[in-house]
Amino acid sequence: MQINDGEDLLELQNSTKIGFVTLMEGAEPIEEPDKLNEFYDRGVRIIGLAWNDRNRYASGTDSKSGLTNEGMELVKRMNDLRITLDLSHLNENSFWEALEICETIPIATHSNARAITDHPRNLKDDQLRAIAERGGVIGLVLYNNFLRKGNRTATLEDVFSHAEYIVDLCGEDHIGIGSDLDGGKINEFPEDIRTVADIPKIADFILKKGYSEERVRKIMGGNFLRVIKENLGQSI
């Protein structure tokens, strides 16, 4: 089922079908900003402007400059189509420049707290707050290097530490699960997390930590669903 608007998303939520929203990680396939509509027509509803390197639109964490003129134009066209901006993978210059132009609710689909783990893919406190102040959500990424310091394998305790930090800093409405379990080696993930089928273990763990069922529902998908609905024009 292709998602066209908020009503389609609500229909999926109330059905037994499995649905998904298409995210483009790195806007390289879009040859120029005025071709964005072609990808919108194919179902793309979330776009991250760059991966780690620099492309024609923006700079990722391995580069230093910010948005290009084409990047600014692309974000403006994303606003018109209500395509969600994903700020994960952008360096700080591109992050702030894109956020300033963005008129929808921004998200960072898979980034953790840099205050806990000093990794360039993780976000600083002012970045986390800026997303939250716009109503956005930060999705926890489940890679060892983003979760813990040193060479040990991360645990669910490390996942919880990042979740708790972001909840304390930004509030329970601005945290989710980004996972990024899309091709890494098993030994790059935390203990007990080997496939997407293990993600419910996170919910069980943080429930045992004393989080309410309502907060856990928000973290495990409710917050991201809210943003997607609002950006598609379906308020809840």
Briefly characterize the structure.
The chain is an alpha/beta fold and 236 residues long. It is 40% helix and 10% strand.
How does this structure look, described?
With 236 residues, the chain is α/β, with parallel strands linked by helices. It contains 9 helices and 6 strands. Helix 7 packs across helix 8 and helix 8 (200-208) crosses helix 9 (213-232).
Question: What are the salient characteristics of this protein?
Answer:
three-stranded parallel β-sheet; single chain; alpha/beta; 236 residues
Secondary-structure blueprint:
Layout: H1 6-13, E1 22-25, H2 36-41, E2 44-48, H3 69-81, E3 84-86, H4 92-101, E4 107-108, H5 125-133, E5 137-141, H6 144-147, H7 156-170, E6 175-179, H8 200-208, H9 213-232
Parallel strand pairs: 1-2, 2-3, 4-5, 5-6
Helix pairs in contact: 7-8, 8-9
Rg over CA atoms, rounded to whole Å, is: 17 Å
Beta-strand content: 5-15%
User: Strand order, biggest sheet?
Assistant: 1-2-3
**Structural class, please?**
alpha/beta
Q: What is the H/E string?
A: HEHEHEHEHEHHEHH
Number of strands: 6
Which bin fits the share of residues in helices? 25-40%
Shape: globular
Task: Report the uncertain regions.
Answer: none
The major beta sheet can be summarized as: 3 strands, parallel
Number of helices: 9
Distance between the termini: 21 Å
Q: What is the arithmetic mean of pLDDT?
A: 92
